[in-house]
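Notes from hallway chat w/ T.B., transcribed later so I don't forget. T.B. wanted the structure written out for a chain they're using in a teaching module, and asked if we could keep both sequence and structure tokens in one place. Agreed to drop them here.
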Amino acid sequence: MLSKTTGVGLVNRRVLLAARPDGIPTAEHFAIDEVAVPEPADGQVLVRNHWLSVEPAMRGWVSAESNYSAPVPLGTVMRSYASGRVVSSRHPDFQPGDHVTGMLGWQDYAVASPETLRRIDETDLPLSTSLGVLGLNGVTAYFGLREAGRPRPGETVVVSTAAGAVGSCAGQIARIMGCRTVGIAGGPVKTALCLSDFGYDAAIDYKAGHDLDAAIATACPDGIDVYFDNTAGPISDAVLRHLAVGARVVICGTASVSTWTPPPLGPRVERHLLAKRATMQGFLATDWTDRFGEARSAIAFWIREGKLTYKEDILDGLDEAPEAISGLYRGDNLGKRLIRLTDMDSQHQDAARAR
């Protein structure tokens, strides 16, 4: 049954998609409203969100041309992974206080059905990790690298946006698998993080103004066996010129391309793939949904063993959400971008006292 501290007197703040962006969404495309906290029906639970995720993929989720998921409808809560605790439950498998994660949206509270939630078992690790290194970012790196990239010990693996939430994890997994790793990042701070925190053997700052082609040749004298591509664009154009025979190119993201209408023109890739007998494969992490547990278990083990680390870029409060996606594409973040919601226990207490 509902607890006495939910329902009447509580406010649910929500971020709504107010306008359809043409390209990267900014604050002007969102609105914040306030409604009463919803009550769960039979078989549902009410979750109080503590952490909200900010993903590069959100740009596609709000686009009219989203090609792998239905666009977020205008006037509805922005689609987002979130993690929090069960406030009240009308399902026997969940109890108040359970920590859960799921597609709960950019809002303070969410009603959810149990089949859409994952109870968080990694209770020795911070709750925030369920949205980053143990969430979509980590499983994307794990399966994209291992299943699409198929690196072998001793091979050279190059990762673009190498200090980002996905890239940093992919690079570290490649190192754990016995590969030589080269990271490409933007700016001296992120390039330094690649070496000091994420263990890359070499790191290239693509913003440094040097000859990127020459820098890649120096860092990868024997060619590139696996390229984990998060950017597309000029960085990838330069990398492709240095593929080794039998190379695998993994297309994870296209962050450098602001719009695909019309599609940008650039060098053709066919000759590189032909001459080097290379393969290029796109993927979505959801291709391996039934194996997410495998990825989380492996990554959690590596974190506990000190073999894999992560960075988090934390914004405080729901008001930060509308501009959070565009900040990703400006490169403002150092690590996984998250929104931390203010603890609302006092609001529960005030509502209870009012009754």
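Follow-up for T.B.: The radius of gyration is 21 Å. Might be a good example for the class.
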